[in-house]
């Protein structure tokens, strides 16, 4: 078995090279030959790898260049991730293997440059059974090598690619099934629900297509390539249908998981209740390897009223605030009418759907914004579509966000109370104007579970979701492939100053674990508030040795972990 001597230097200092090689060989045997070596995605374009000459692959490089900003090729390879911060070691600009996403043929990025491993694992297992995950936990316990889990690689906080770990790649778990009367194991038949089960590798596009063929509606993310049962779900899982149908965690009824103690568990409201609660919002990559999850579905195709608005943004951005002010003023009413969607400035300005209104009601509801959009010579479409799938095909697929960039988010859950008083709306409008003046256009998913409460705290997701109307993205920045550490720091410090302002705007609220600013302070409270203590207690029961550990995940310790395994992120913002 080929081995790179640079890998696991720490192990080499206490073990001989041959011993380490034996460890990997026996691991490979125990997973039936499904252990593989990985180089970064763009390595075929580079003639050096880790400083040594390397065989390029011109055909593969060209294919990659043509597909660099699309997810299609990335989800079919272990080393493919959506955001470049997942591939590179952000604090060490030498330690990366990136192309120029604005021009993937730009030779400056790869000619006579060394492709370095960054935060991509050097070894991964293509998981196809519970036994594979069990073998990985045994290996981890025996050798001290930590694990990471990757489904699709959409994470914004480098949580699915962790330097020096053995990676578990879940994409191969492709099972999907539909059960009209699904009874969670150990519950009585009175608990039956219409539900679909998705293996950990199933992505939204596959789930939506399957649900449509079955004539039902399943709630999922806005990007077609995100996994249904991975980090999206375990971290909360918002959808434009969430105002009426809840978050992903509100709808999941059962998980099948291998916990780090090696046990395969079925977790639901009747058994392994603590694990079930933790997986409903406590975050991916933390409590074990989820093999599949069962999601409650709506037993029919739900017709949707759709509002789609766009207008040219003025060169001086003078029409941005008037538009946002209308949105601020009308959002409370829209929320009560079931509207969910996105407000943004990349292409379409407002795209909203509601299952609660007729066409005429939708037209009346949207009138203030329709009139404004028309005054700006824009287009305003209000229409009825017969199903989620028809909305997905018409509005999501053509607007898929480009990937392959270093894109850092900053978001906050905006409390409903701010929309309820003139003073609150004024404060919010001031904050938005401040962002716009500083060249940071907001991105606003209106995707909180506005009409869906969780009175018995059956989920562990941030309680701030239930008190909020907007999930406001305010400080996203995109960094070029060749950003120096100084340039990166300057850009991030600007974002960080808005993080402070956002926290002042809504001090008692919080931020979404999956889409948070990576350097969020007091992240335990910001991501989970009062739920953190219980989540930590459960983490310590099932993973006392921290075989699974990720950036600002439950159990992560700033003083220990950040300074050792996570320096690629920790050293960035100092
Ligand atoms: C373009 C884009 C659009 C987005 N849109 C939305 C949206 O509409 N709604 C929303 O809520 N979020 C959205 N997100 C954020 C999304 O929720 C996160 O990126 C999430 O981490 C993706 O989960 P994943 O499993 O597909 O990705 P991965 O990066 O593969 O995994 C994310 C985390 O989950 C863990 N994980 C993955 N699979 C498993 C498993 N089987 N068992 C245990 N842990 C696992 C990983 O270890 C990692 O910690 C979007 C992100 C992007 C880039
Ligand atoms: C694991 O075994 C398979 C099958 O024998 C082989 O193809 C693969 O290269 C091995 N993995 C490693 C890392 O050597
Ligand atoms: C990548 O690019 C090539 C050439 O443009 C194209 O034929 C192919 O379908 C693309 N997608 C994938 C997944 O390779
Ligand atoms: C930065 O990365 C390069 C390439 O991987 C490596 O040689 C160097 O030691 C790293 N520097 C630090 C300070 O870790
Ligand atoms: C490649 O880079 C090295 C130093 O990084 C330099 O010595 C060498 O001349 C370069 N080669 C070419 C062909 O540019
Ligand atoms: C997938 O489904 C098939 C057929 O139902 C079953 O035999 C198999 O065990 C399932 N695989 C996993 C990993 O759940
Ligand atoms: C929004 O409401 C405020 C009062 O709360 C009002 O002063 C302002 O003119 C309204 N803006 C728009 C664009 O309707
Ligand atoms: C609005 O902002 C002011 C100044 O920061 C603050 O004192 C006030 O409490 C805020 N009002 C609301 C409703 O948040
Ligand atoms: C549920 O959680 C909220 C927010 O943390 C808390 O205020 C409330 O007391 C909890 N309710 C129950 C029934 O535990
Ligand atoms: C990054 O590359 C671009 C060209 O692709 C160049 O214009 C820019 O100056 C480079 N930046 C740095 C910091 O080298």
UniProtKB/TrEMBL annotation:
Record protein name field: FAD-binding domain-containing protein
Protein keywords: Oxidoreductase, Signal
Organism phylogeny: Eukaryota, Fungi, Dikarya, Ascomycota, Pezizomycotina
Gene Ontology MF terms in the entry: FAD binding; oxidoreductase activity
Gene source species: Paraphaeosphaeria sporulosa
PANTHER family: FAD BINDING DOMAIN PROTEIN (AFU_ORTHOLOGUE AFUA_6G12070)-RELATED, GULONOLACTONE OXIDASE
Family, per entry: Belongs to the oxygen-dependent FAD-linked oxidoreductase family.
Residues annotated as domain FAD-binding PCMH-type: 117-300
Signal peptide segment: 1-18
InterPro entries assigned: BBE, FAD-bd_PCMH, FAD-bd_PCMH-like_sf, FAD-bd_PCMH_sub2, FAD-linked_Oxidoreductases_BP, Oxid_FAD_bind_N
